[in-house]
Amino acid sequence: MTPKLKIENLTLIFGRDKETALRMLKEGKSKADILAATGCTVGVKEASFDIQKGEFFVIMGLSGSGKSSLLRCLNRLIEPTAGNIFINETNITQLNDKQLQEIRRKEISMVFQQFGLLPHRSVLENVGFGLELQGMPAAERNQKSAAVIEMVGLKGYEQQLPSNLSGGMQQRVGLARALANDPEVLLMDEAFSALDPLIRTQMQDELLDLQEKMHKTIVFITHDLDEAIRLGDRIAIMKDGEVIQVGTPEEILTAPATDYVSSFVEKVDRKAIITASSLMDTKPVSAVFRKDGPEGSLRKMRATGLDILPAVTVDKHFLGFVYLKEILEVKRRGEPTIESVIHREVPVAYPDTTVEQMLPFIAETDKPVAVVNPENNKLVGLISQTALIIETTGSQTL
Ligand SMILES: Nc1ncnc2c1ncn2[C@@H]1O[C@H](COP(=O)(O)OP(=O)(O)OP(=O)(O)O)[C@@H](O)[C@H]1O
């Protein structure tokens, strides 16, 4: 599948002597060395990644890491120094001014941190401003604007001036304006960073709801890893102009690529993000069959060294757990199957169940947790108690 956006070796250098700076960069010189020798700042260094259609892609990094510079290259608000950017299959870096304008009007919109609203225009006029520039007649423009204003929850405020609105509402106007021309790609530069925390969380939720309906390709910038994790399908982490890791929130949290990423990850509340599938043992699950006799079950327990095993039907439907000591009882009583000692009232998780959702039943059980496929109830994995305890206490040293 062709990605919606393809960023290929993108480099951005600020300053005059870009050529020398670029050469030094290729030689592997550091940002500091390049600055000292040429007076040039490396804003973005050889970034390469793809963004898929409909993806919510977050670029996260501290102040000065280069995320705004990178975002602004995507619509050439800043001219990249080297590399390519493709939208669909069009190389944006090669477009002339007219073609670029066309792309900016139709395909890529941007939402800014400071809202960027025109103070003397009403909400309706602000939202319709881009359409007006395109020469759309007033009636059609107003109709489109009113529709997106309703979409972002501002119906009734069409005639207000921005100064009469709260920060959160002003940012909704900014969002509505970006959505008015129904772009395929939405660039959002720290769009919620100026809002206070409660409003910010509310806006994040609303944006996620909107995205469920819109399926836009969103590139969202933030310096806040919690926000990145809440919003992103995937996250790119930047440091000193470099993209140092691209991955799903789970990949970033469970397998940080560098110590730098780890240091961020340590501060995140993982329980809402880590899911059963990332915790479960991926080795083929040892299980006893319901029709197994006690001898067969004991053999499996000896082989695995476990004194609790899941019990399944022949086609792997999960039934419950069996315990070593009860199987020994069954054997002593001379029963032909282990049917009578399967504990069926046990909690199960689905692969996308989060640790937070598992907490209530983790507290009540000292067994491993079975992970089953929600569609057919087949056993797909087991999560050991140790893995759960580490995740819930956040401690690797028990
Ligand atoms: N116009 C400019 N001229 C020179 N250097 C610049 C310019 N804009 C940005 N820089 C430098 O490029 C680097 C990346 O800056 P950028 O603003 O992209 O980072 P950021 O991660 O978006 O930070 P912030 O969140 O503070 O905006 C920084 O070292 C910055 O000082």
The general outline is elongated
Assess the beta-strand content as a share of residues.
15-25%
The CATH first-level class of the largest domain comes to Alpha Beta
Mean pLDDT: 89
Helix tally equals 17
The helicity comes to 25-40%
* Main β-sheet, spatial strand arrangement: 6-7-8-3-9-10
Q: In angstroms, what is the radius of gyration?
A: 27 Å
Largest sheet descriptor: 6 strands, mixed
Q: And the CATH topology of the largest domain?
A: Rossmann fold
Tell how many strands the DSSP assignment holds.
Answer: 16
Notes on the protein architecture:
It comes from Chitinophaga jiangningensis. It is a single chain. Helix content is 39%, strand content 22%. By secondary structure, the protein is an alpha/beta fold. It folds into two domains: 5-107 and 183-268, P-loop containing nucleotide triphosphate hydrolases (Rossmann fold), CATH 3.40.50; 277-393, CBS-domain. α1 (18-26) packs antiparallel against α2. The longest helix is centred in the middle third of the chain and has 18 residues, at 197-214. Residues 14, 41, 43, 61, 63-69, 223 line the site of adenosine-5'-triphosphate.
